[in-house]
Amino acid sequence: MGHATAYLKTRAWIEVDLKALEANWLLLKAKARGEVIPVLKAEAYGHGALPLARFLFQKGARWVAVATVSEGRTLREGGVEGEILLLGSLHPLEAEEVLRLNLLPTLSTLEAAQALAGRARALGLTPRAHLKVDTGMNRVGFPWEEAKDALLAVEALGIRVEGVYTHLATAGEDEAFVEVQRSRFQRVREALGEGYFYHLENSHGLLLHGGENVRVGLALYGLIPGFSLKPILRLLARPTLVKQLGPGDRVGYGGEYVARGGEWLLTLPVGYADGLPRGAVRFVKGPEGGLYPVAGRISMDQTTVLSPGPLPLEAVLEVLSPDFGPTGLCAWAEARGTIPYEVAVHLSRRFPRVYRYGEEVWEVLN
Ligand SMILES: *Cc1c(COP(=O)(O)O)cnc(C)c1O
C-alpha cells in the first residue's frame, strides 16, 4: 500500500484526493437537473474549506455555501472571489460585515432584512439575499404560507432577492414527509413566480428523490455508501514507538489491554483530539493493508495498536481510509452510534494536509 505523500517528513498527516472529489462532484451534477451548490460549512465537514472552494470554483462551481460569516470571511481572505451563500440565518448584528465581504446572506426574519437594508444604504451597497422558507422543519425560515408576504416585505426594503429555498427535515428517514415539504415548496414557487433561483434538496434528498437545484455536503465528501460515491480523505500516521510486550504488561489509561506476552505494540501519534472517536476506532491498516487492532483506550494524542511484527518508525499506517470498510469514517460513526457528519466535522485541524489530484500535489497546508 504505497502512499503518494509518504516522503513527507512528518509523523501524521491528512491526505485529500481532489480527483475523487471531482468524481463525486460530476456524479452529483449528473443526478441534478439544475445547479449543484457545494456545501463547505464546518471546514468542508473537516476536509478543509479553502482548498476545496478553490478547486471547485476552478472546476466550474458557480457558488459555494458555508454556515457562518466567519467561514465566509476565511474564504474571502484566502482569495475566493466567487459567490458564497451563507446558510445560517443572518443575524441583524452581522449585516454590515456580510455586505463588506460581499457574502450572500439567508434571510429568515424581517429584523435581519431591515438591518441588511439599513446597513447597505449607509455603505452605498446593494443588498442581496436568499429567502429561507420553512416547509416543516421549524428551525429557521419564514413560514411557507406567508412566503409571498415575506418576499414583498423584503423587496419593499430594497433588497434584491436572488433565491428562495427550504431544507428537508427527513430525507432518508421519512419519505412521506419529504413529499409534504416538496409539495409545500412547489406551492411557494407557484405563489412567488419565476425569476428566483429555487433550491431544495440536500445529499440524501438528491440521491433518493432526484432534484433540480440542490445543496450537497455529505455526498460530495463521498460519505454515503451505495451510490458509487467515494470518500476522499485518509489519515496517515507513522509509529513513534515500536516495542514488544511482556506477559501481563498493561497498555494505556486504565491498563485495559493486558498482554499475553510477545505482541508487538505500535504507538501512533493520533488520538481523540484529532477526531478519532474514543471506543469506536477498532483497527488501523498496516503498511501491507492488514488490519491491526487497537489495544487499550485511545488517548487524547496517541493510540496504541498491535502489529504482527516489528516495523520501522518510517512505516506508514492508514488510520482512516477512504472506503466503507472497518477503517472508514462511516464505520467509526456507526460504532460510535452517531452520524458520519458528526465524526467528519471533528477531524483534526492540527495535522499537515496534502491536497492531491491523482499523484500530483495540488496544495500542502501546514
Ligand atoms: C448542511 C446543509 C446542507 C447539506 O446537507 P448534506 O446532507 O450534507 O447534503 C444543505 N442545506 C442546508 C441548509 C444545510 O444547512
Question: Can you tell me about this structure?
Answer:
Helix content is 30%, strand content 24%. Strands 3, 4, 5, 6, 7, 8 and 9 form a seven-stranded parallel sheet that branches. Strands 19-11-1-20-21 form a five-stranded mixed sheet. It has a three-stranded antiparallel sheet with strand order 12-15-18, with no helix packed on it. The protein is of the alpha/beta class. The chain has eleven helices and 21 strands. The longest helix has 18 residues, at 175-192. Strand 20 (353-357) and strand 21 form a beta hairpin. The chain folds into two domains: 18-216, TIM Barrel; 233-365, Lyase, Ornithine Decarboxylase, Chain A, domain 1 (Beta Barrel), CATH 2.40.37.10. The site of pyridoxal-5'-phosphate has 12 residues, from helix 9 and strand 10.
Brief characterization of the structure:
This protein has 366 residues and is an alpha/beta fold. The protein is 30% helix and 24% strand. It has 2 domains: 18-216, TIM Barrel (Alpha-Beta Barrel); 233-365, Lyase, Ornithine Decarboxylase, Chain A, domain 1 (Beta Barrel).
Overall pLDDT score: 96
Structural class: alpha/beta
Could you name the ranges where pLDDT drops below 50 across 5 or more consecutive residues? none
CATH topology of the largest domain: TIM Barrel
Helical proportion?
Answer: 25-40%
What is the class of the largest domain in the CATH system?
A: Alpha Beta
What portion of the residues fall into strands of 2 or more residues?
15-25%
| Quaternary organisation | single chain
Overall 3D geometry? Answer: elongated
* Beginning-to-end CA distance, first to last residue: 24 Å
Which architecture of the largest domain per CATH? Answer: Alpha-Beta Barrel
Number of domains: 2
Biggest beta sheet summary:
7 strands, parallel
Strand elements, count? 21
Number of H- or I-type helical stretches? 11
Give the ligands present: pyridoxal-5'-phosphate
CATH superfamily of the largest domain: Alanine racemase
